[in-house]
User: Fold this.
Amino acid sequence: MKKSIMVFFLVFLLIKVNAQNSVEGIVYDENGKILVGASVYFPELNKGSTTDSKGSFFIGDLPKGKQKIQISFIGYITEFISLDLSSQENTIEVHMQQAVLKSQEVVVSGGYVSSQHENAVKIDILSIDDIIKSGTPNFMEALTNVPGVDMISKGPGVAKPVIRGLSMNDILVLNNGVRIENYQYSENHPLGIDQTDIERVEIIKGPASLLYGSDAIGGVLNFIKEKPASIGATDIKYFGVFNSNTLGFDNNISVKSSGKGLFAGINIGHKTHNDYLQGGGEYVHNSKFNEKTLSLCSGFSGKKGVYRLYYDYFKQDLGMSVPPAISLISERSR
Assistant:
């Protein structure tokens, strides 16, 4: 009898230790109508899901403690809810309000997650959709759509950011929070970042940029990588663009997959562009460029924490429109 009680106690203890916290709920609009396809995401855990045909969602394998959950849907204001995951099963109901103009951006630059309204530092957000719609093969040129941001260019493939008149050593560039130190040395060094796996670009201008150090006196560019796929889903995307002025092609394919605890993704990109053709029929000598990119990510999200691993490969073959090179170019080429 004692052995049976002891075995039962050990089994009960083992089940208790291995129990996992979870969150489930339903997302409604302000009129009580369910929202199908709403995004439910834990930004600090890199874990999320979408609502099904009944407007419900379930996310498991969550750590104990306080977590902030983000609920977003096109045409509605993004909601942020703080949850105390002290129990194994947690249930919530979310009622979203329609957005009159635009939903709030998500800010993660300061090491925490908040809405732009709650953040004291003004951050300009440029999404990947805005970059694609700009229609330029030059990633840096797309950023100049933000007021106060310009560039120093020696060709479509060679460009450096300028924020409020300051550049090079006065601009701090972060790739998912990691400093990039390869572009400051001269105007001939390119940015060295491609948009293949970028979700958005955060731009900080003015005195607030000094929070990042004296080398950010001009401003900060923070390139945020895209989120993993929803739990149990595999996302495959292809993106292609043809530019008539350069007879150039941009191709990118990405595959993302996420399981119960593990997530991984791969992005492969290739750009090839001829010398830029101007309006009068003349081409810009030696403005051609070619790029090859490979981005890998993997990680684990569970009750013991979140672990992420990133690898970026970026190779550029650049032409530069500078006097010594122009005199050597006799015909348009790739």
